[in-house]
Description:
alpha/beta, two-stranded antiparallel sheet, Rossmann fold, 3 domains
Amino acid sequence: MESSQTYSIGDLELIGEVKASTIRMWEKRYDLFSPLRSVQNERIYSQKDLNLLLKITVLQSFKFKISYLSSLSEAEFENLFEEYSLKFNSSNKYLPEFLFLFLEKDGEGFESLFDKVYEQLFPEEFIVNVLEPLIFKIKKLIQIRNIDSFYADYFFNKLTLKLLYLAEKEKKSRGSKEILIFQSDSSILPYNLALVYFLASVKKYKIHFYFNKLTMESLEKMKGVFQPDIVYTEFNENISSAKMLKYSEVLEETFPMSKNIIGGSRLKDGWKLLPDKIYTVKNLESLSEIL
């Protein structure tokens, strides 16, 4: 992945999953990186710096200490990495390459890697260990780098369509259980829910999926119409706790026999307010255990 792409220390922290304070310490104590400085005196790291950081994290997973790794010559370090990288079998090892291709705006390369990893992993593993953390990191990169909103929307729209396409392929052998997936937010790019749709397809659910926002009034009209085994929605927008509570109460009244599940970033503040009968999930791994 040689490139002229440059990175901030925030980029390295996000992609390499190493704290910025640790990177600065390695730089000062072990002279591992030699970043340039911007006009504002901010560190500017190269692709070579990022590659080195990622290699260090792989070797650290095999209990090699940074003090030892920093003492090796470049050739010794590369030989050690080559030996142990063959043993490194984590499904999230693909994340840095995905993020690099995203930053390079290499849509063809991104899709090619997507297809390759999808073929190598079990679908559920791909969704939980690759796609969900990947989307989280891309959203963070968009914030950190102030990435063009047109490109970001285009990327997520294309990703959503890809996820729905794969979900349809997985739906060929459905079971008898039903799940209702819908938006309580007003996002026009429901890539989070597309992941849930994909996961439900892998779990062989018969799926009812609503792209558009379902208001409380629309939900109430469903009462008595049908009773799915699972009802799932998310709260990601900055709504009031009172409104979130009211929405969950309507959910319980409308689907009293269903297992009602709520996820989304808004839950970190308001999950304690929800009725006891409502299941809350922090991530797709938690949701997968319930389905």
